[in-house]
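Key idea: predict the complex, not the pieces.
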Amino acid sequence: MEDIVLRELNEKGEIPNSLEFAEQHKFDVKAFDGVLKSLLVTDYVALQNLDVSEIELTEDGKKAVDQGAPEYRLVSLLKVGEEKSKDELVKEFKDDKELTLATNKAMQCKWIKSSKTSITRTAEEVKDETAKALHSLLESKDPNKHDKALIQDLKKRKMIQIKQIKYYKVSKGNSYKTKRVVEVADLTAEMLSKGTWKDTAFKKLNTNAMGKEIATGNFHPLWQMRDEFRSILLELGFEEMKTDSFVESAFWDFDVLFTAQQHPAREMQDTFYLSEPATCKTLPADLCEQVKKAHEGGSFGSIGYRYKWKEEEARKNIMRTHTTPCSARVLLLLAEETKKTGKFKPKKYFSIDRVFRNEATDATHLFEFHQVEGLIADFNLTLRELMGIIGEFFKRLGITNLKYKPTYNPYTEPSMEVYGYHPTLKKMVEVGNSGIFRPEMLLALGLPEDVSVIAWGLSLERPAMIHYKLDNIRNLLGHQVPLKFLKNNPIFCLP
Ligand code: FB9
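Result:
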């Protein structure tokens, strides 16, 4: 096909109608269209989009040509002066509608008289002008070559339709050649050594083409933020805690943190309880005893909560609701180390990991989030040091003008909510929570009486959603996160 097109253009300069050309050469129209498009892409040809109106007979039109127009067939069923009922005549037609159309047209031609129930032929001689006109349309499908009123009437009677036939006028393109020269993309060493490059056509170099997109890996924006927080805490001299136990016993998640067994946070509405294994196998016996005393009262200078503490309640397995149990575990190790060495060594720890809350999910809350927690264990720490370290931490995150609001946590006293000016939101926002761990917790763990532990916490998701200007957490975490968000987000950097 390609050679025939190029030769035709060489001899005649153009192909006025691609459809007629395809018919003359018995080309498959679709394949021929593909060849023209391929020649267009390589600028061998230029294509001018044209279209032509063409008359096409409908099924009713074809039936009229074959069997006569409906009005003619109706009159042919009657002798001159003969009357027949419509019920009888309708059997010779597709349906009532066709008989009615035939009757109306025959009345218009003054061939019949019609009553409600019967038809009588009045005309002697009748000619099927409709069938004759349809025949004449088959000779030339160009509607402009026929009487406009006739075309309109036949269209109205749904015997013809006018189709737009698209075709091209084909002419020579800027790169026209009488024969397609296969262009190659790459210059090879062989071409250079044999000199064949001189007779080779090379594809034009498209200097505007974009480089091939490299499918690189990308750090999840949340992990980039976690790494930023981790760097700040490491720079401030904090060590990262082990946080590999998503499942904790209620003992470590609540009881060790001096959270009473009746505390609402321990209810099913807030906490995920495991059904299998429902309870943990072991609890540290000494610590268990100390925690029991702390809750029931009468130890560590505290009246406790004065209720009957139940070990079976503490043994229940849950999805941890915060990372503070990890802090409790690391403080137990610190207490044991102190007893072993006889010397307490101040420490700074942090954790960043997933925690789980059995809460209603919405646009900004899932049933899990990542908690960031920092703690300092040292002699005689006060709110002064706590506000100092929080200030330094948030300053490095671009949060200034910190304010503190007293609050309640079962495991810290005093406790404070932290607020700060956010440069992106340009307003004061809640940025975390903090406090000094209670003696009922620290002494039960076995830490020396003059050691205090200050701590604070925040989340990863909240700052990330602010930073990336997201209003739905599902665009940050989970299976609905748009891949382009993961691929296109700039490397994270704090203000
Ligand atoms: O992250 C929070 N807000 C926040 C933090 C940073 C930020 O931008 C910085 C530039 C990077 C912007 C906002 N919040 C804590 C405050 C609110 O979002 C709050 O509505 C949601 N909180 C979570 C808990 O929700 C159930 C955030 C999460 C939270 C709250 C408290 C703690 C940890 C996480 C804690 C603690 C704690 C207290 C004392 C001792 C030890 C730990």
